[in-house]
Design brief:
This protein has 3 helices and 14 strands. The protein is mainly β and 245 residues long. The strands form 2 sheets. Strands 8-9-11-12-13-2-3-4-5-6-7-14 form a 12-stranded mixed beta sheet. A two-stranded parallel sheet has the order 1-10. Strand 3 and strand 4 form a beta hairpin. It is globular, with a radius of gyration of 18 Å.
């Protein structure tokens, strides 16, 4: 379960080995075309600071995240399922609560109240712009190498070694590092009729697993109940949060 300990707020998977698909086909695009396409994707995430929404993230059907966020009214909840274990997070105003059935050293299974000042940077639970997307779409968009837009559909290549750690989808290197093909993995994304990003998909290829990110339920009220009887999180919890452990 050590891998689960390191991914409490984000899907994470490392490079695989064995018989897997070869390098995925890439989509050629010059710099101007790529800039235009990535600009559409960045504009397509403006809703994060404007309305409530739902996020679904998945890696290889092994690690999933479902989150509801209302950054305007400071309400959010997240459920992470990883290899049969679950962690729940609730955020209300400036308070962060967490409960998990994962066997973390020195940590119980009751609701805990976290100290925001002690939460590591790659466990980005916040309503602050730039850190308030449970899907972590900005990290994916910033790792794009080439892209081309065809109406609401955007395709291209992404450097998975540049995605980094944070909310949503994460990729960790295997024992021998990332495979070379991970630097030009295919991706596809879709915008809805209002220009909002609704899906970002990375197919399995180059020794890396498939991953999907979906946004939906725009404008739906997010109701989060403050857990009763929550205890102060123990000191042992904080070093086990995030993906840098």
């Amino acid at each position: 379960m050590s891998a689960v300990i390191l991914l409490l707020l984000g899907c994470s998977s490392g490079a695989r080995t064995g018989d897997e698909p070869g390098r995925a086909p890439t989509v050629g695009a010059d710099a101007a075309t790529t800039t235009t396409a990535t600009g559409l994707l960045k504009s397509g995430t403006a809703f994060i600071d404007q309305t409530s929404f739902r996020v679904d993230a998945d890696i290889a059907s092994q690690v999933t995240t479902v989150a509801h966020a209302d950054n305007i009214n400071k309400r959010a909840d997240t459920t992470i399922s990883a290899f049969g274990r679950v962690a729940e997070i609730r955020m209300i105003d400036n308070d962060i609560y967490m409960k998990t059935d994962m066997d973390l050293s020195g940590v119980g299974h009751e609701w805990m109240r976290l100290d925001p000042a002690r939460v590591p940077a790659d466990f980005a639970v916040s309503f602050t712009p730039g850190r308030n997307d449970p899907g972590g779409s900005a990290r994916l968009i910033n790792a794009i190498v080439t892209a081309r837009a065809d109406g609401p559909h955007i395709t291209g290549t992404i450097d998975l070694t540049r995605v980094g750690a944070g909310n949503g989808i994460n990729f960790r290197p295997g024992p021998d590092g990332f495979p070379d093909g991970a630097r030009s993995n295919a991706f596809s994304a879709t915008l809805d009729s209002d220009g909002r990003l609704v899906s970002f998909s990375i197919p399995a290829a180059n020794g890396m697993p498939n991953a999907t990110l979906r946004y939906s339920d725009f404008g739906t009220p997010v109701e989060v109940v403050r857990p009763q009887g929550a205890v102060a999180a123990p000191d042992a919890l904080y070093p086990q949060l995030g993906l840098s452990g």
